[in-house]
């Protein structure tokens, strides 16, 4: 079945991007020598590389093509009883991988030809025979090295290509899974866990490719090596073999411990990434509460557990390094082979953990409405054509874990919702209104009964999901632009004024989750997106509560009941009385069951009439006044909007990347994080370790020469004692180096994370508004993983390679004087090559990091809004967008791979030349053709055996140097965030512990901007709030109501004027101290994962009795008791409670604080009118003596207050007693009141 699909796509890819025409035209020689990368390198030397400079991808590496290959194999695998991702990967990429094995056999075989020829050459030098044999052997040795260079690099190139294909397939397959996974199924995994699938597990699975060929290749190499040893030393090799065999169980035991530590470490890493994500998502709220340090402390506890398991791994690794490096020199080959075998098993163990985790995730049931649908033939009687949705005795649950019994949220739902009707769903907080919409969308798990819905769907969730992008992108949502419909949509959603005020109009850039929009603007933007789609069925979750009375009335009349939606089915969850009275059908829910359905007229007479109580104002005022009012604003503001897109991009800053080489300061910083003492110990032990190894070899060759000549040497026991001393010193120094490296790496990892976290926690809110959280999360996941794990590993290899090269150069110069002639020209070529390569490789690594951030940002964003994407059937659009990001990432990685192999090949060829030179010189010297005598065969043998590994050592040194530089880019990126601006934390004056005493607040000529380039959010605002009074702040959406609180909490600096609380200028109060002494209920309710007790009182200052009293006052005690008391576990973002319940819990939290100043930002917006009234009474009675500042949309909320302030475009336009203002028909407040029926 898949065959045609695949072949169609292959043609498509080959026709589609004209990327491969160039690729196909390359000659064999160009492919062998990696000529294609030279154009990129030429650019890299003269300028900073950009994405357009990169190599094009070959057709078979296109991510869309790779995705199709793996996903078709995974679909087949899913049909089996126990699907496993690794099998699907094998079916997709197994054959090309096995073909690579053939190339590896040739390559490994060739590796043994060199030592055999070297052996023959040394024999020739010792015995002396016709000289042409010697020359032939010397040249053959060189040619073998050249051939091996080409085979080596081709094998690495093809393996790297395969790994890149696999990586893009796994990334796209994980993303697709997230797009189609229902919210119920998603609840089995935490957000941090799903993000780790993408950031870590995908890479680990790909790294398995390295291990599988080594499983057969290493035993083969060891077998051949042992045979060659046997031919040299007969049965003496058994001593070395015995040591090696003894080490097998030790290494196996160590590898099991490492795998165990890795699994535990990954769990803590998931949790740490989740907590970091939570802090970043809610940083504004955390700062208002003054909790950021508390949360960072909790995060640090998780990090310490992660580091504990990381330390176990690092120290076990150090033992492995010790066993590998310290085994006697004679048998280093077989021991190294076996160690590597064990080492690769370690990698395989961690990768198997990753593939198991991914398999579990990919097996989750997908969002298929089919499971919920009654097929037409089965129940045509219950789904008549004129019904938009029908439920028959349907029960739904949120949890989808297979092991726990389901607790149903909606029970025995029997509903028939007619097409074209306006349906209002009402009920108290937590009655199941939002769940009903999710059930219709297919996001919940159907436990029993049936559900059927027809037609296209548009969905506006209660917490609007806003894309990072322009306003137009958000409304079009991947659809084509139709100017007439677009303009009508904007108008009916009352967005036209807001857009005209924005720099850049509808092309203004909106930050992540709509950070630079007010709550009301976010709600209207989400509604506009739904209306523009022109769907058959609209599911609107409480869209009117986030906007003020004027706008709510306008939206209801012109949008929901207006011509654009009048022919469609609209299901609106609401507490808005006017909307309820306009509905054709009203559904009353209570505790997840349908209590009543009927018309709004019948509702008044029913027992549920309390939802329908009117204010003391009638709704005679028509919407035309507002329209006139709106147009007057229009005329005035259009003049302001002249310079359009210059300011637009400033909201979100471009991700910075450094230019040129990694600066010395980065190395210094890393060394200081690791500790200078440790750094010096590492360098000294490495140099001394190499010196003892070289001394060991020189002593051996001296021993060989003295026993081979007639001169009198020392006794055998003396030679052995000296040899043993060298061995013991070498072993000890190896141990010191291995452990000091492990210790230093851990120190650095801990320091970097702690510094980074401290700096971020103290950064101003503006930094988070301008920086997408995916970008910051990339530092905390990928970059930190590099600093934890691969950077110390690469540095260790770099130091080993450097001292190894130094040792070889010293010994060669001592043994063969002519080698010194080569040093200068050779060094010039070498430095030229490495300069040419490094300038490009650094840039490529930086591009690689920059191209990775959008992948994580898009992934995180999609996770949050997947239900909206599915409702709009926009999966394909998002999949395409994500594939574009992966393609860019794929291109940077491909260019990086080709560049490193370009270098590797040229270095290996230089090495081959050195070997040939030393061999030819040795032959010439032995025939006395040269004026200098090359001394004994022992030393010549040593010189040749040292010249052979120079090939790999040179390559390894430069590769490890370049790799270390690339890995250090992660440190560089972390250091970037250590220079971010900080909030001023400490001020000089000592505070009275009882301040504020009365709660008197004075604003004096306050002007505030969110950014220097943006227009002011508050313009010269002056007012006084007496202590102990209750004040309401009202105004249109975007009038600057929330900005009043932002200024009070010092979230944004005041550009002129000042604010006094009880006569004290708030600038003189330490900012955390200030925030901790004011209580607030933010606009978007915030609950975190943990117990409810911690959520209400994280600092542990209140006792249970007080908590229960406050919960009762906030009318949420019953729900908490039903859920299981104060110790119940609250899910991430508080999803275990409805939005209304979350607001009530946040109010309870604020009341527990018992501060003299309580600020409420629309805290009753998402609760029904009845609960809102009860809360109003709670606040007025329970907060006597406190200053209460309430931002309100419901006029009824502010009627009983002592004072109200009315804002318009950041200016205070009216202030006074609400009753007095109401009596004055010309006041702004009375026009607001007339528009309100809430």
UniProtKB/TrEMBL annotation:
Membrane found in the keyword field: yes
Transmembrane segments: 227-248, 318-344, 670-689, 718-739, 797-830, 909-930, 936-958
Protein EC: 7.6.2.2
Major location category of this protein: membrane
Domain ABC transporter: 382-616, 1001-1234
Entry's family note: Belongs to the ABC transporter superfamily. ABCC family. Conjugate transporter (TC 3.A.1.208) subfamily.
Name used for this protein in its record: ABC-type xenobiotic transporter
Keywords, sorted A to Z: ATP-binding, Membrane, Nucleotide-binding, Repeat, Translocase, Transmembrane, Transmembrane helix, Transport
InterPro entries according to UniProt: AAA+_ATPase, ABC1_TM_dom, ABC1_TM_sf, ABC_transporter-like_ATP-bd, ABC_transporter-like_CS, ABC_transporter_C-like, P-loop_NTPase
Domain ABC transmembrane type-1: residue ranges: 102-352, 680-966
Alphabetized GO MF terms: ABC-type xenobiotic transporter activity; ATP binding; ATP hydrolysis activity
Keyword Nucleotide-binding in annotation: yes
Uppermost EC category: translocase
PROSITE patterns the UniProt entry points to: ABC_TM1F, ABC_TRANSPORTER_1, ABC_TRANSPORTER_2
Localization (cell): Membrane
Organism, as annotated: Linum tenue
This protein's GO CC annotations: membrane
Stretches assigned to coiled coil: none
